[in-house]
Structure to design on (119 residues):
């Protein structure tokens, strides 16, 4: 995490009372916001906390003048892929790494579309 922080990744915790239950890592570069991580502890999933972190990410990206949010995810995780699609993301390609047992799906969400829908 220290290396990511040193590279400019902005890190945010999601707390319920005093317990850290979620994490968001984003990096602003050029006209994009790179979504590195949205992590919710398993026992706290399906309560809307991930959506709240994603909305916070959108807000930060818009405030920084970014045009879109990009991410890479393990594409075999169909539930997660569908969650991103339901939140305005579209697939932009795939990457396969030698020796990795999974495919990375690249996705993006244009912020103009999001702000128009969210108004």
């Amino acid at each position: 995490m220290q290396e990511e922080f040193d590279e400019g990744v902005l890190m945010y915790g999601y707390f319920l009372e005093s317990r850290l239950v979620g994490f968001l890592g984003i990096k602003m570069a050029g006209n994009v916001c790179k979504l590195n991580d949205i992590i919710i502890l398993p026992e706290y999933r399906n309560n809307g906390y991930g959506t709240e972190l994603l909305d916070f990410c959108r807000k930060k990206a818009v405030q920084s003048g970014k045009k879109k949010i990009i991410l890479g995810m393990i594409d075999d995780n169909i539930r997660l892929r569908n969650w991103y699609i339901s939140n305005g993301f579209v697939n932009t390609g795939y990457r396969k790494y030698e020796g990795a047992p999974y495919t990375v799906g690249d996705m993006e969400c244009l912020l103009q579309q999001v702000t128009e829908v969210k108004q």
